[in-house]
Amino acid sequence: MDIRRNTFTRSIKKQRLAGFFSQVIFVVTSQRNKWFLSSVIFFGLGCALYFLLPARISVAEISVAVILSVCAFWMVRSKAWLAFLMQLMASITAGCLISALHTELGPENIPTRTLYSTEITGTVIGIEPRGSRMRVTLDPTNIQGLSNDQIGWNIRLSFLGDSALSIGDEVRVKARLFPLRPPSVPGDPDFARNLYFSQIGATGFAFGRQFEVLSEKDAYENNGIGPIVEHLRQKISDVINRYVTAPEAGIAKALIIGERGDVTAEIAEDLRKSGLAHLLAISGLHMGLLCGTVFFLVRLGLAAIPGIALRYPVKKWAALAAAGAGFIYLGLSGATVPTQRAFVMLLVVWIALLLDRRAISLRLVGVAALVVLVLRPDAVLGASFQLSFAAVGALVAFYDGPGRRWLDRHGGRPWHERLVVYMAGLLITSVIVTVVTAPIIGFHFGRISVLGIVANLVAIPIMAFWVMPLIVLTLALMPFGLAGGVLALMAPGLTVLIKTASLVAAQEWGLWYVAGLGDVATACLLLAIAWAVIWRDQVALVVSGPLLIIAIIAQVTHQTPDVLVSGDQESWAVYDREQEILHVADGLGDFQKSLWMSRFGIRPEDEATRIRHCKNDPCLVVTGAGDKETRTIVATRLANPFYACRNADLVITLKNDLPIRTCRQAGARVMIDDDVLWWQGGVALDRAKLDQGRSSFETVRGISGHWPWIVIGGKAAPSQR
Question: Angle of helix 519-535 relative to helix 415-445, nearest 10 degrees?
Answer without folding.
Answer: 150
